[in-house]
Amino acid sequence: MEDPESAGAPAAPGLSSLLPPREFLRSRKGQLLLAESVLSFIIFICYIASLAASFMMAPLLEFLLALFLFFAYASKLNEKFKGVYWPLADFLRCVTAAIIYFAISIAAVSKYSDGASKAAGVFGFAATIVFAFDFYITFNDLVTFLKQGSSDSPEGRKTE
């Protein structure tokens, strides 16, 4: 018997409809959001198992936000909802996440002596780098957008 997927038949709707498209997974933004989600989840698990359990809320929130943006970009919600400027929201999320991860990683590594806190701190430093790279990329998109917007706006200001 021949497999229906190999015969070129369309895939049945179900669990596969929840998966993001391969093009998005291969894009830089998709890979960054996936890395942010995975790192945030690992850090969350490490903080749950550590003495520094008071820090677990930040990775949980960042995990949920990164997961939401991952599926929002994958399902092209950013093109459907024009009222929200998505790169600015993503930029602010990345900046705050990088700062928070850096601060709690320093606190976890220096204050707590158990292995899970140290591991959470090390993964937190890695997440800081990933989030910093993401906000650098997003910042370049914002600057390009603002330059395009400022070239159109002086004519409108001169007539007013």
How would you describe this protein?
The chain has 160 residues and is mostly helical. It has one domain. The chain is built from six helices and no strands. It has helices at 22-26, 28-48, 57-74, 77-80, 86-111, 115-159. The longest helix has 45 residues, at 115-159. The radius of gyration is 20 Å and the shape is globular. Mean pLDDT is 83; it is low at 153-160. It is found in: Membrane.
Provide a short characterization of the protein structure.
By secondary structure, the chain is an all-alpha fold. It has six helices and no strands.
Q: End-to-end distance, in Å?
A: 72 Å
Helix and strand run: HHHHHH
Counting structural domains, the number is: 1
Q: Treating each run of at least 4 consecutive H or I residues as one helix, how many helices?
A: 6
The average pLDDT score comes to 83
Uncertain stretches of 5 or more adjacent residues: 153-160
Strand content: under 5%
Largest sheet: none
Q: Structural class per helix/strand content?
A: mainly alpha
Radius of gyration: 20 Å
Quick tags:
160 residues, mainly alpha, 6 helices, globular, membrane, transmembrane
In terms of topology, how is this protein built?
Elements: H1 22-26, H2 28-48, H3 57-74, H4 77-80, H5 86-111, H6 115-159
Helix pairs in contact: 2-3, 2-6, 3-5, 5-6
Pfam families: MARVEL (PF01284)
Keywords: Membrane, Transmembrane, Transmembrane helix
InterPro entries: Marvel, MARVEL-CKLF_proteins
